[in-house]
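We modelled the chain as a single entity of 314 amino acids. Its sequence is:
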Amino acid sequence: MYRRNAYRIFPELSISPKLFCRHRLREVTGFSVYASLIDWANKLNYQLDTVVIGAFIGSGAVAVWAPAERIISGTQRLTNQLNGVLFPTIVDSDVTKQQDRLQQILLQGTRLSLVMVVPLTAALILLADPLVHAWLRDKAASVAGTIPIIQILSISVAIRVGNATGTTILKGAGQHRMLAFVNLGTGLANLAMSIALIKPFGLPGVAYGTLIPIALSAIFILYPAACRRVGLPVGEAVRHSVLPALWPALIVGLVLAVTRHISSGTLLAVVLQASGGGLLYLALFFAIAIGRRDRALYTAKFVELVGRRPLAAA
């Protein structure tokens, strides 16, 4: 069926046994094996925490960890949609030797990824207490330990999503082996640190065991490697892609810190307060943090996206 569909879609396709040689097999598996290793390492980073908690503390602690894990995983899925779309463009730019295009992908992709995740991270850090009490209500007192876990893990998600464009460039532009081994090392360090910190610090120790390896590998290994791959100095990349997305969050964080005790404490009030902070962040970012050229670019792309006609039925 695969062969029939392939010939139906690509009539000029020619497949013969001589194509199944060692060179072609190495070409195919040389990427797919490391791509699988990257995925396994990512799962090691985020899905073994509950196993460690259950083994060293017990199932009751897993119930405290679970609400934070659900919030954080949902935040990551919501804010990390851009980089999967960028992967084919990165591969095409690498194959066609478009270094300038790769540079713009790194700068704009990192900046937009941070714009999507940073306001949510600020809201989770500062509104974790009312969020947990409004969401869990009667159970909030028994899972008060969820609050610091949300605050710690939200920082790790912000770092991971903010660095996702860089890791996608490494994966699609010939540095997938290095990315696989760094991710695997990060996952093993996460496991070791979580085991080492769970006894003296409890659940926050497990959260720190996740945050510290992710932060160190992203800041000191992966992002600099992505900058070298596209030919950009790290300082220039940080100045153009990271700083414009971070400093508006400081103002939003100050506003949320001052106003977080004003709301009625309901889930709707927390959502409205977080949404207000997000709108303030976007206003500061769009009006002040970026220049006129970037504002014109983003406006044109937004108008193009909104005005695009839906595809006609086949």
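As a brief sanity check on the tokenised model: The longest helix spans residues 99-136. The radius of gyration is 22 Å.
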